[in-house]
Amino acid sequence: MTVKIFDTPQVQDFLNTVAGFDQAGGSERAKRIVHRLLADLYRLIDDFDVTPEEFWATIGLMNELGKGSQFGLLAPGLGFDHYLDMRMDAEDEARGLAGGTPRTIEGPLYVAGAPVAEGITRMDDGSDSDSEVMWLTGQVRDTDGRPVAGARVEIWHANAKGGYSHFDPSQSEYNLRRTIITDAEGRYRARSIIPSGYGVPEGSPTDRVLKALGRHGQRPAHIHYFISAPGHKHLTTQINLAGDPYTWDDFAFATREELLVEGRPIDDAAEAEARGLEGPFTEVVFDIELSRTEAPELQSRHKRPRALEQAAD
Ligand code: MBD
Ligand code: FE
């Protein structure tokens, strides 16, 4: 039976009490946000005639999401990460800080504390001899085209099975995760392996939510970056390797035209030798343009829970 009680004074008074409006302590912002959130949900329950069975199934699902630390995975699937990016883009536009390489979402699989190298490094541990060798390089410049020496370029990506070290126990510590400090010409260079796309674990609570929406949990092959340098705006971004069937069908909505990079297959002994490689490889070039800013809060990444990062950092 359909009943409508949301607009009654009893329910409205009840909401005010639940949100702590009649209490002196607590945070005004927390109260207003919780009040709004609960009001929207109470109204939804009324409008959709949500049954107790549906409500408690949802509580069970949320407990499972929490147990598996999956809220960070569901969030991009529900578009929150991209929505926050759209808001930060609009803020940059309003502040006159637009320009440079575009941002895109961080995702939940960063791990703090990767090994740091000057200018050049190898990211893979050499245990995967079946994967395609990747030569990943680029130059960091400011928006006037001047190279940025000494920039911190943090890179992380999946292996050819779509797994990330730390979260995938079959990989060695910090495999496919490095920080490279750009050389005098602003360049970074890394030997690695070509990543595959990521897929949300089959049967996981996040997968169940996506399936209920008729959606999949696949991401195209991508490589994550944090780039920072004093006097420049911190950049969180990713590149996508062109030609992936999921390029424009990313469950996390991170693809941007400007961030699509075509790998160049090279089968030339002299080219390989020039990079200290043997045999064929695929070169992936990603140049990065940073906007200048003197605001210290714009020069470092946002705080959020991250693996192996101190909450105080
Ligand atoms: C990933 O590798 C990722 O980048 C995002 C955003 C979500 C899940 C897995
Ligand atoms: Fe990723």
UniProtKB/TrEMBL annotation:
Q: Which PROSITE patterns match?
A: INTRADIOL_DIOXYGENAS (PS00083)
Which domain of life, per UniProt? Answer: Bacteria
Q: What is its EC number?
A: 1.13.11.1
- Specify the taxonomic lineage: Bacteria, Pseudomonadati, Pseudomonadota, Gammaproteobacteria, Oceanospirillales
Supply the source organism for this entry.
Bisbaumannia pacifica
**What GO annotations for molecular function exist for this entry?**
catechol 1,2-dioxygenase activity; metal ion binding
Which cofactors does this protein require?
A: Fe(3+)
**What keyword terms does UniProt attach to this protein?**
Aromatic hydrocarbons catabolism, Dioxygenase, Iron, Metal-binding, Oxidoreductase
Region described as Disordered: 294-313
PANTHER family in the record: DIOXYGENASE, PUTATIVE (AFU_ORTHOLOGUE AFUA_2G02910)-RELATED, INTRADIOL RING-CLEAVAGE DIOXYGENASES DOMAIN-CONTAINING PROTEIN-RELATED
Name of the molecule in the record: catechol 1,2-dioxygenase
Pathway given for this chain reads: Aromatic compound metabolism; beta-ketoadipate pathway; 5-oxo-4,5-dihydro-2-furylacetate from catechol: step 1/3
SUPFAM superfamilies linked to this entry: Aromatic compound dioxygenase
Looking at the record, the residues that make up the Intradiol ring-cleavage dioxygenases domain are 136-164
Can you tell me which family this protein belongs to?
Answer: Belongs to the intradiol ring-cleavage dioxygenase family.
Q: Which InterPro entries match?
A: Catechol_dOase_N, Cchol_dOase_prob, Intradiol_dOase_C, Intradiol_dOase_core, Intradiol_RC_Dioxygenase
Reactions the enzyme catalyzes: catechol + O2 = cis,cis-muconate + 2 H(+)
Q: What class of enzyme is it?
A: oxidoreductase
